[in-house]
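Private note to self, pasted from the team thread so I don't lose it. Backbone tokens:
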């Protein structure tokens, strides 16, 4: 049986970004491009995905380590 992604891409081929929105690669690619950073820290990607999935987040990280990128990730990815 074809996967859900296969079905969606067959019916709406121009509406799905590549890679899949459900994959961790998609937010990582968008955040690196839009925020002009060459590499995301592991915690940034992990928590950005959680925020994009609608989860609450309490993040304690040292100054200058990238909290702002995490907090703005839903806005940045929604405009992609």
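Design output:
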């Amino acid at each position: 049986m074809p996967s859900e992604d296969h079905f969606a891409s067959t019916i709406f081929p121009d509406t799905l970004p590549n890679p899949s929105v459900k994959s961790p690669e998609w937010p990582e690619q968008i955040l690196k491009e839009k925020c002009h950073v060459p590499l995301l820290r592991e915690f940034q990607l992990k928590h950005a995905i959680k925020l994009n999935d609608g989860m609450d987040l309490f993040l304690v990280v040292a100054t200058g380590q990238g909290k702002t990128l995490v907090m703005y990730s839903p806005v940045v990815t929604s405009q992609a």
